[in-house]
């Protein structure tokens, strides 16, 4: 009988990537651990791409899903939906956006796609500003604004996109500047760019670039951008698909590190809120959300089952202060990782905040990306019983560390030790 890997290759597109030379099938999980089909246990430091945010098989979430599924699984947005309204009320209140409206989708890609629809309709413009090294999804519109070649398979787009400096602090023409001077230079770049464009609809930005390798600007950059955007009437879309729900530790939303000029006009979210269920969404003030002049529904967005999961998961996260845990345990973890990387010549930088940590690898003594080294460490970590991710705009050479937010101190210490052993493979 053919292996599952052979069957996968026979029916799944070549561009659907798999980790590892010998891919693993994950069969079940509990807490911060998962097991493969051969019964081997792994400490999960990637959470299904930052999606299992709270814990695997969290009883509160699984019970909420089972209870709701036992009543009704689906109705669509054509009918009143109590779990959807209740979750929307909570997210609107947490968003920081005044007079907020919430529209639910099934993914972060769809959420960003909806945000682009709203912004372009509201501003009657198809011009978008995005950040270099960014990633916003895999739909036709979101691929068109993604500033990362590895995740942008076509140059065709319904939008005209212009890319702004600032998403990566330690590379590019302003890397040598102080934080204050860096922000000044990026603002000057934005001002200059706007002098060459037609009317712009929006700037979309990840407060911490996820697929780009957990890079971020100095705190306050997007507030400085916001002041410029406001003068031109341009909207600010904060892509919180990976940074939302307290993962960065210091803030509940990534935009709050840049909130000196107020909240974003539009906020998108997904991944962690469903703890593995397919939930995404958009928050915008009513004036923007209600700008569409044609009918629109969502067949699966706001499903009673996924909304029940989101409600239970959000309640658990808030009641157990998982944002505080991300700050405390994440602070310990990044220091342990920095210590583990101190003697490794291939490590260019350890960066991040909360439980969102990146390790950029380069050819020793240079800024040239080392994707083979990243692949080697990824494999060695798996062999040691640790699952991590990878990414990065410079040829996928950044290791990505993003455990569930309930990570314990003991598990952080264990994971750092396993990662240190994997780095020795270099």
Number of helices: 13
Which percent bin holds the helix content?
25-40%
Low-confidence stretches: none
What's the helix-strand series? HEEEHHHEHEHEHEHEEEHHHEEHEEEH
Q: How much is the average pLDDT?
A: 97
- Sheet with most strands: strand arrangement: 4-10-9-8-7-5-6
Largest sheet: 7 strands, mixed
The secondary-structure class comes to: alpha/beta
Oligomerization: single chain
Q: Total strand count, please?
A: 15
Beta-strand fraction estimate: 15-25%
C-alpha Rg (nearest Å): 21 Å
Distance between the termini: 37 Å
- Sum up the overall morphology in one term: globular
How does this structure look, described?
The chain has 13 helices and 15 strands. It has helices at 4-11, 47-50, 59-69, 82-95, 108-123, 140-145, 179-194, 221-232, 286-289, 304-319, 322-341, 371-384, 409-423, and strands spanning 26-30, 33-36, 41-44, 100-105, 127-131, 160-164, 202-205, 235-239, 266-269, 280-285, 347-352, 357-361, 386-387, 389-391, 398-401. The strands form 3 sheets. It has a 7-stranded mixed beta sheet, sandwiched between helices. It has a 4-stranded mixed beta sheet with strand order 1-2-3-13. Strands 11-12-15-14 form a 4-stranded antiparallel beta sheet, with helices on one face. A hairpin with a 4-residue loop joins β11 (347-352) and β12. The two termini are 37 Å apart.
